[in-house]
Fold:
Amino acid sequence: MAGINPFAKFQKSFSLNGTTYKYFDLASIDPKYNQLPYSIRVLLESAVRNCDDFHVLEKDVKNILAWSPELKQGQNDVEVSFKPARVILQDFTGVPAVVDFAAMRDAVIKLGGDPKKINPICPADLVIDHSVQVDFTRSADAVLKNQQLEFERNKERFTFLKWGARAFNNMLIVPPGCGIVHQVNLEYLGRVVFEEDIGNGKLLYPDSVVGTDSHTPMINGLGVIGWGVGGIEAEAVMLGQSISMLLPEVVGYKLVGKLGPLVTSTDLVLTITKNLRQLGVVGKFVEFYGPGVAELSIADRATIGNMSPENGATVSFFPIDENTLDYLRQTNRSEEKVALIRQYLKETGQLRNYSDDSQDPKYTQTLTLDLSTVVTSVSGPKRPHDRVAVSDMKKDFTSCLISPIGFKGFAIPKDQVFAGGLFQWDDGQTYTIHHGSVVIAAITSCTNTSNPSVMLGAGLLAKKAVEKGLSVLPYIKTSLSPGSGVVTHYLKESGVIPYLQKLGFDIVGYGCMTCIGNSGPLDENLVNTIESNNLVCCGVLSGNRNFEGRIHPNTRANYLASPLLVIAYAIAGRVNIDFETEPLGVGPDGEKVFLRDIWPTRKEIQAVENKHVIPAMFKEVYSKITSGSEEWQNIAVAESQLYPWNSESTYIKRPPFFEGMTRDLQTIKNIENARCLLYLGDSVTTDHISPAGSIARNSPAARYLSERGLTPRDFNSYGARRGNDAIMARGTFANIRLVNKLVSKTGPRTIHVPSNEEMDVFDCAERYRAEGIPLVLVVGKDYGSGSSRDWAAKGPLLLGVKAVIAESYERIHRSNLVGMGIIPLQFLPGQNAETFNLTGREVFNINMTAKELKPGQKIEVKANGIVFDTILRFDTEVDITYYKNGGILNYMIRKMIA
Structure:
């Protein structure tokens, strides 16, 4: 049972405007507090405030206080508990979370418990932003048409979420059409400092958040600790559980100097992403310091924080300084609130002055970047950390074409490098495309649409381009999806919208669109030409992810770029261009127009930003954030504790995770006579495991929907159907770019080894299930990188996967596997599947009962005559508890009814 907080005596108070505010004075507990990295101080405050020797132990506080620069990953088994202040969800991950909550209520009733106990205890905000697609573009009414189609496709999902908002306490839902979750979090939801009523005053503590989207660390730019977790882990936090984590290393990243006049924050973040990937920061905190930080706006910092999943860090943290407080004023937080935040930060030693190196903590490792060395860059063609200087882009793309298949290769024969194809467009004209032709150009995603400097920069570049007589070819699918209504306000007020529209960059919606794979269809004639000529055509987007098959099936190369470069490459029509020596186009006067002729300077951009990005815009947009559109307001929902499941629904279905569940723990068993469902290589992402994009017409999921009377027009996307386990199980490993070593061709196919028959992955898993054969996956490095997608763990569970044997794991995905009761095993250092000449055709036996399970112990695997040890990647005792319960949700149910 919870006890009295042993650190209550360290509470202090101050008065402001007639109100008494209490806080924990951590420096008085131990003076070592003042040497801790600022990010570790947030973990410490949470442990002190929540210490009850039940959920959070006194030893957790002592362990955090004992944090040392000598702490090294791999040699550290210090486990601590962390209770974040809130949880944030988006609808792709939020729908399955609410589905699980509804199913848990049903399970609790069956086991004789009170369903009301299944209710968020920790505040949860859900922003519906992932459902809108780019079906319409290049018209002033594109945004309305796309939003109408969004409601047509997703009304059942939206109705379910609206039911959840009423059925569950402590849950705020931001309706569709309001913006991208991370930008709404930055501009509106982020508290920076929480105020909690405690009867005789208010208790203050740092805002902190975990989210079911891996780009949650964007809020780190505001000085709020936040990171992505699996949906199932987020559900446990919502139910009042703490997160069990290993005390992290903190890498100090020092910034000095100033960015050049033509360099953007996107170029900076792509540079940092590559640097940190090379250093290796998976599972670590990164904390920025140095005088260069003060040169960056909060939006710039948030852009860097956003791409933490791409650089590998858990967080990329920027401690709060006076610039942060100025941003709060700019975004219409009240002056009273800002004054309170400032006072609290001063009292607790958390207000940073980046020019004062006496405030610099000691870090486990440091690196330095001179901002003046950053050059204009893109990343691609298949990974976010493969940065390419724009000056090298033409040469790099040509190299990629002829290089062997890989992250930087397409294996195009040298005699086909200049291949092309013809197609006819709606205007009756015939166009030619080649390798490198741009077919999608999208200003999209939270990474950049939150940053006025690059959005206004794109607008100014568009203005200059139009004035020079430049245009964009009509077949290029151009789109602009702002991160919030505020962006539209300042683009309009600055007068750049008409110029963006003339280049085809009309506003198409407010949400995570092209970046998540909601790029919508390409013209059939264009697609046929790409496919029949085996062309490597390109997408250029201002996003954060460009993994294979994510953006669109027919853009084999995808490049991340600033909004300015998105427009530049759209005008050029190709990525294999040298902007220094080749013109973007020719003006009406016959003069060649180069990129340098239309590129705005940072000084130009900042002048427009200072004039047009004002608090009144934020006030107007966010004053009506929860009311939603007329369509949202007209959705009628049932008033009930339990959800009235519809057995005919293809969107919302009660999941099978709790079927047959008892009050007693399951018995741990060995995995015997298992088969390998898939034999995969390195960097298999959650997009490979559980794609969010369109449902292919020849897939098991398509067959399932067709059998229920749906036509391809109504299939929608996997992301939109995450509330239906039957679809998601069939969509597991459905990515058309999946490379499975058991088969010769790329795609969602595998071998049923006993019969040597090739079939769809889902069909093969079902056949193994009918035969009573358990399954394993054999994979390489960084398994599960990418989005924090809980279905990437739930799906394999439903396919019958009992264990994964990998060379290494992405942090969130390992946690998700544990949360669903799948065993993550890791080859010993220096070993992998090739070490033991595994083919994937072996029979696997995994010994889980030889001795009592302990975090990180060795587990023996037998594969035919091959015997090798693996590391059990249950990293904490809590992981083992979840496994014994059959997963985190089963544990929570048993806990609630105990």
About this structure: The chain has a mean pLDDT of 93. Residues 671-897 form a domain with the Aconitase; domain 4 fold (CATH 3.20.19.10). The CA atoms of residues 452 and 593 lie 26 Å apart. The longest helix spans residues 142-167.
